[in-house]
Fold each of these.
Amino acid sequence: MTLSRRQMLGRLVAVAGAGAVTSVGACRRGVPGECAELAGARIRWIVPNAPGAGYDAETRLLEPYLERRLGADIVVDNQPGAGEITGARAIASAQPDGRTLGTIGVPGLLVATLLGNSEAPDVSRDFTVLGRISRSWHVWAAGQKSPLRSIDEVIARSATRPMAFAIDEAGSASLVGIAETAALLGIGVDLIDGFAGTRSACLAALRGDVDLVCFNYDTIRDLIASGDLLPLLQVSTAPVAPDKVLKGVKPADIPVEQPTSFELVVNARAARVLGIAIPRSILLRADRVID
């Protein structure tokens, strides 16, 4: 798939945050934390990615705490496909009884809608958004052997031809990051989709089949730390992480470091929301308690 900068800029008129937990239906609003309608019920939590990919990790981290809070049994149901649209449609079409939750990628669904995909659910109409569970900080990166060593070189090279990006799905959040940033920088891009996941797209960059990739930093952090990918641009208002590789330091030149001090911070407010009782002994040892 190839989209010009003008086409993408004209179509991307709205962009929302990253993954959000969604559901249709609600619990009664009585005593804080109570949800009598769901106590003892089985809840299906749909994830639009394969196990271990996308929002699967966040979902499984939340699962035991939400089970405890609701008194329900949560079963994670992975439904990947069609740029996360398959899973999103399953959530949107579920019975509005509060027994189907899900995790969706808002930017990807918005892109699919703006590009005229009639199969994509409408984020503002088809879901009850409960909250945001993560935010994506994207990084443009080139393969280790790429002649492109800085974003200035990317801009200069784009004057002669569009920059080729590998993306894993046509409706992914990466497409939003590429299109918006390229438009701001005045860079023409060719978006090459069809890769089977982030790793496959990154391998294309390592082989030199494409010029660049753009993914969430945490997703490709290990490839950057190993030196396989060279970060050229952080798409954010501030450094996405304190890692030295993002400051241009070669991984081989980074010494092994160990922490010299530790701080215990307890988020008591979040613990109450999740129904977790923090022992008093831990609260007394904490350097800081968020209440």
Amino acid sequence: MAAPYADCDIGPETAAHMAVACDRVRRETGLPIGVNMLANAALHALAVASASRARFVRVNQWANAYVANERLIDGAAGPAMRYRRELGAQDVRVFTDAHVKHGAHAIVVSSTPRPPRSAMRSPRRRPFASGAISRLISTA
């Protein structure tokens, strides 16, 4: 595994610190804020958003698995929607990426790769998400 990536879960201390920071930013600025946590930590992001009264979370990989530098990462849709309901945070919107730029969507090479525009139009790829985020395939 290449540094700086760690093959471990985000700890509760990270979510606790993020919640405090997000709450302070929201209070000081009066602006709506959202939460994005690395390593596809959708549950942590929802907990932070609920505690800090953020309006939305961004989840990198929502419905499919992909291979990333950290590990094989599963989509978070099912567990995240159940956790959001448990938190009573149905007002927290979920925005998801249509393509993951730093990982592979398939373990094997597909003979018919889907272009980003096609993935954006496919709601079954993003069940229950509030919206989709389209990014460049690569950054220079």
Amino acid sequence: MIGKYIPKTEITNKWLSKKLGQTEEWVYDRCKIKTRHWALDESVTDMAVLASEEALRNSNIKPSDLDLIVCNTIESQFIFPGCSQQVHGYFKLDTNIPSFDMNVGCSGFVYGLHIIDKLPYEKVLFVCSELQSTFLSVSPSGKDSSILMGDGAGAIVWDKKNSFKIIDSIIFSDGRNVDKLYGSRKYSPHMDGMIVFKNAIHKMREMIEEIFSRNKESLEDIKYIVPHQANGRLVDHLGRLFKTNKVFSNIDKYGNTTSKNIPIALSEMDLKKGDKIILVSFGTGFTWGACLIEW
């Protein structure tokens, strides 16, 4: 049901620190990341296809049985067509299987689940693929972004009748903060780190509490809270706010992989039928959202 693709090239803090004119300790203390993976030859579409193939194998669903393909990416291989159409073409699917792209940055996976849940399609391939390394300034001036970002893809094949179900989901947007977190046409990411960090913590906490309140659930009923892996300090802070070790984290291995980090996290979790988890994200726009899922 879930698939992922992680590029083979591992970028260590030792290598980065030399490029950035900093120490390894400085890099780790800023983000709690030990390694991240960067693509050398793979495109956004290549990674999307590889993650999708694994998700299809794990779900025992043939590509021809799909009803819809959705892709979220902030950096499609072409301006047009979208990544989803390229995945559609790779699998040589019938024309009655629609496809479309989203660009919601770090909130893309939660946004996508919220939207797909309301569409009249039963078997959906949803893939998040991101290639950011080629646009980073790996230099002292670009250190704040280059220590964080990783490449890769995560995919799910969601058979709504036979897999997890969304109990509740909420999404939000505030376009007044576009200038606080954005990428230009040449991408060169801009982030007002302190404002983004404070808003992310506040909104994530608020959404988790709202999900609990709306559904009469508590932390004791939840196996994991799975936040967007933006920064290790942020993930740790969320755990302290709720006084729990149920906040899942794998950012130390992959870095901030934008929209794909939640599906990658799901691929590494030991989930059993009936387990309840909360997915929560915050990202560019600003956009933010949360889902309560029963596995």
